[in-house]
Write a structure and sequence with these properties.
hydrolase; AB_hydrolase_fold; Rossmann fold; hydrolase activity; globular; 11 helices; two-stranded antiparallel ribbon; alpha/beta; single chain
Length: 316
């Protein structure tokens, strides 16, 4: 989805960051204790951490990447990570392949946005992440609150009237929510690129389909086992997976992530998978997952919407 004609070089940078052409001499060394800022600096770039307040009180952290602090950047781009992720995810391929670094070297002022509720965005002005009400949000609020706050802040800091946006997975969902509910934001975006966007989920496969079928049969209360607060936080879970599965057995190392994304094993580099597991998950709310499950139970395409009927189940 592109709202205006995007620069050719911008599209090339995004296209050339794809995985299959990885040079053999690139190695991965992203220690699990490294924060996004540590990774950026270790990869030879300058880093800034910015915090913006959303309209409903969440403090959202953004990481800014620049090769040269004194350089004038003519264009700004926002990268929004995928579900259960954080800004760290964009950086794991390293200096020569990670998309944020390629964009920075290509002349872009790069901003990595962190979703509310992940490891970098767990502060609220009126409550604590230890309380139930903190986690009362989904990708809907990420779209209607987080993105407008981030767009306004970045536009003011960079003095750019138009911004470029790249969203992966839930990052793409958030942008679709914003543009659907507030189409005037199309004027703010010069371009929008959605990578593996989560939008039409009715034909989704894997764990989300199993949960959707369970929900359709047993109702909203059947998802209570997912919890009401944080879903898969950034605690010892990933470390335990690495210790248990990543012991030289390529297939075993890939399995934990394959269970989550239902992808093909041929798409993963074993060493990179270790780094991904070491930095994942970044954290989100259980309600976010439940909202996707609900989306998977409804055909919201133009054809399917004509068949939708009211339901007594407590949606979202």
């Amino acid at each position: 989805m592109v709202t205006k004609k995007a620069p050719v070089e911008y599209m090339k940078i995004v296209a050339n960051s794809t995985w299959p052409d990885k040079p053999d001499n690139i190695t991965f060394d992203t220690q699990p204790e490294f924060s996004a800022e540590h990774l950026i600096i270790a990869h030879g770039f300058k880093s800034e951490s910015h915090t913006v307040l959303t309209g409903d009180g969440y403090m959202i952290t953004m990481h800014r990447i620049m090769r040269d602090l004194d350089k004038r950047y003519d264009r700004a781009v926002i990268l929004y990570h995928g579900i259960l992720g954080s800004s760290e995810d964009w950086l794991l391929l390293g200096e020569k392949r990670a998309l944020p670094y390629l964009l920075s070297d290509g002349g872009y002022d790069v901003w990595l946005l962190n979703a509310r509720g992940n490891k970098y965005s767990k502060i609220h002005t009126g409550t604590s992440s230890e309380r139930l009400e903190f986690w009362d949000f989904s990708w809907h609020e990420m779209g209607i609150y987080d993105l407008p706050a981030a767009f306004k802040y970045i536009s003011e800091i960079t003095n750019k009237a138009e911004l470029n946006f790249i969203g992966h997975s839930i990052g793409a969902t958030a942008l679709l929510v914003l543009l659907s509910t507030a189409p005037e934001y199309n004027k703010v975006l010069r371009s929008g690129i959605l990578l593996a966007p989560l939008a039409f989920m009715y034909h989704a496969k894997g764990p989300i389909r199993l949960l959707a079928n369970f929900y359709s049969t047993n109702g909203h209360s059947s998802l209570n086992f997912l919890g009401q607060t944080e879903f898969m936080n950034s605690g010892p879970f990933p470390e335990q997976i690495v210790k248990r599965y990543c012991k030289g057995d390529t297939k075993s190392c890939e399995n934990p992530m394959l269970l989550l994304v239902n992808g093909g094993s041929h798409l993963f580099e074993p060493k990179l998978m270790e780094d991904v597991l070491a930095h994942t998950p970044g954290g989100t709310s259980a309600k976010t997952v439940i909202h996707y499950v609900q989306l998977a139970t409804h055909d919201i395409s133009e054809k399917g919407s004509k068949r939708c009927v009211a339901t007594e189940k407590g949606l979202y």
